[in-house]
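Exercise 7.
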Amino acid sequence: MTDGWMLPSEVFHWVDKNIPQGSLILEFGSGNGSVELSKKYDLISVEHDEKWLGFSNGRYIHAGIIQNQVSNKYLEVGWYDIEKLIDLPPVVDVIIIDGPPGDIGRSGILHYLLELPACTWMIIDDTDRQKEKHLAEKIILLLSPKETCQIESKNQRPNGDNRKATVLRMR
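Solution. The predicted structure, written as C-alpha cells, is:
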C-alpha cells in the first residue's frame, strides 16, 4: 500500500482504528498518502512543491519554504510560509507532520507550534531518523501531550532501520 515515501501502512491502520471517518486532518507534506487519507477524512494538505498540489481529493494550501529562527538554529533550509496558513481552522482532529522533506527540514514547525490549530492527535513521521526523533522530543517537551506511542513499521530503509512514527495524544 505504501510507496516508501508516504506514511507506512501501520500508521494508516492506526488512523483507521483511532480516528473516526470524516474527521479533519491537517497534514504537512502531500503525496500518495494524501490520496488514501482523503478517501475517508476531511483533509487539508500544506505543500511547498507544486507537483503535489491537487493530487488528492482534499483541500490544498500552497506554501513556499521560508527561513525562520528555528530552522536556522538547526541548519535547515526553512519551513512552510506561515502567512499562507492564516485561514486554517482553529481546531483539527489530527495534525500529521510528514513534510517538508528531510533535506529541507521540519524543525521550523517549532517556531510556529503555538500558532497551529489545536488538535487531539499529532503524528510525526520518520522518527527513526535522528532529526525527526529530535523534533518529536522537542514537541513533547513544549506541548506536554497526555500520552505518546511509537508505531514501528515492517518497512525498512536502505540502511536496514525500520521506519517509525510517533503519535501524541494532545487532549
